[in-house]
Amino acid sequence: MLTEMTEEHIQELESQLLALVPATGSVGNVTLLRQLMDKGWSETKYWAVRERILDRGILVTGRGRGGSVKRAEHVIAPVSAVMEGPDTSTSGVSAGADVLELRLASGGRLLAIIQGKKPAQPNNPRPANTTMVVFI
Questions:
Q1: Looking at CB atoms within 10 Å, which of 46, 91, 106, 124 has the fewest?
Q2: SS3 call for 38
C-alpha cells in the first residue's frame, strides 16, 4: 500500500498517527484506528503506517485486548549506523563511543555521543567511567 505513495505523503501519514499517541503511556490500536478512520483512513493504511513506525523504532508495541502502541523511550545505535549523511560527521568521535539517539515526535532526532574513561587514580587502580554527552 505505501509503495504507491511518495515519501513526503508517508511522512505526513506518520505524523497524523503519531499526533494521536500520548507522550507517556500507551493507546490501543482500536482507538487509534477509529480516530483515523474518522479522518478517512482505511484499516489497511493504518496497519501499514503503524508497522513502518514500529520498524523505525519510534513506537513499540504494548499490551491490551486489540494491542496497543506507545512511544519508544530511546534508541541506541552504533556510531557508524547513526552518523550518516552530509549533515553529520564522525570526526572527533572516538571508536567505541556510544551514541544515544532520541527520536523526536516531529520525526527528527537528537544524538548524544557518550565517550571517555577517567584514568586510574593512585588509590584506585581501576579506571572510573566518565560520561561526556554532546548534543548535536
A1: 91
A2: coil
